């Protein structure tokens, strides 16, 4: 029998997160997670969608809060269903793609994310954050 997954939400429902594929000069921005689920894995900037927030507003807020840059031309890519068995969490991740607009990448939340770097799609460091691994399984390529 498969081990049951404890849910990350008190109400028994999955969380909803946003992952932002920020593109600059043909490269994408990735960082290494430090805290929470998926620690020590590589992912795109992003985070939890707030009540009443649009996908685009969440993407812009999270990218600035985490990496200190501004984005534009935000567009929907796909959705992944992400189970973190070890952490007992379940998330729905909405992936968006955006263009870098301005600013200098900084580690604004070093207790959450570090080691920001611009890389080509084929050179994303490993291990991958579960949502990013699931995105790659769809065949999506930036």
Keywords:
mainly beta, disordered N terminus, 7-stranded mixed sheet, 142 residues, globular, 15% helix, Nucleoside Triphosphate Pyrophosphohydrolase
Helix content: 10-25%
Oligomer: single chain
Question: Class, according to the CATH hierarchy?
Answer: Alpha Beta
Instruction: List the domain count as a whole number.
Output: 1
Terminal CA distance reads 38 Å
Q: Quick check: average pLDDT?
A: 92
The largest pleated sheet is described as: 7 strands, mixed
CATH topology: Nucleoside Triphosphate Pyrophosphohydrolase
Low confidence ranges: 1-7
Class per helix and strand makeup: mainly beta
Quick one: CATH superfamily? Nucleoside Triphosphate Pyrophosphohydrolase
Number of helices: 2
Molecular shape: globular
Number of strands: 7
Order of helices and strands: EEEEHEEEH
Radius of gyration, rounded? 14 Å
Task: Report on this structure.
The chain has one domain: Nucleoside Triphosphate Pyrophosphohydrolase (Alpha-Beta Complex), CATH 3.90.79. 15% of the residues lie in helices and 41% in strands. It has helices at residues 55-67, 130-137, and strands at residues 15-24, 27-33, 42-43, 46-48, 70-84, 89-102, 113-119. Strands 1, 2, 3, 4, 5, 6 and 7 form a seven-stranded mixed sheet that branches. Strand 1 and strand 2 form a beta hairpin. The longest helix has 13 residues, at 55-67. It is globular.
How would you summarize the topology of this molecule?
Blueprint: E1 15-24, E2 27-33, E3 42-43, E4 46-48, H1 55-67, E5 70-84, E6 89-102, E7 113-119, H2 130-137
């Amino acid at each position: 029998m498969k081990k049951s997954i404890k849910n990350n939400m008190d109400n028994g429902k999955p969380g909803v997160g946003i992952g932002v594929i920020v593109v600059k000069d043909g490269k994408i921005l990735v960082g290494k997670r430090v805290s929470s689920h998926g620690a020590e894995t590589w992912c795109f900037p992003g985070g939890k969608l707030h009540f009443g927030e649009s996908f685009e507003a969440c993407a812009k807020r999270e990218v600035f809060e985490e990496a200190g840059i501004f984005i534009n031309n935000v567009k929907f890519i796909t959705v992944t269903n992400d189970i973190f068995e070890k952490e007992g969490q379940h998330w729905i991740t909405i992936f968006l793609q955006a263009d870098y607009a301005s600013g200098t990448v900084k580690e604004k939340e070093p207790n959450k994310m570090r080691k920001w770097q611009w890389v080509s799609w084929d050179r994303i460091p490993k291990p991958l954050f579960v949502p990013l691994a699931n995105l790659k399984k769809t065949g999506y390529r930036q």
